[in-house]
Amino acid sequence: LRKSSLHGYQIETAHGIEKLITNLFADDTTVLLSEHDSFQDLEKILDDWSMAAKAVFNVKKTEIIPIGTRNFREQIIEHRSAGALILPPHIAIAKEGEAKRILGAWFGNGISNEGVWTPTLDKIDADFERW
Question: For residue 111, is it within any domain?
Answer without folding.
Answer: no
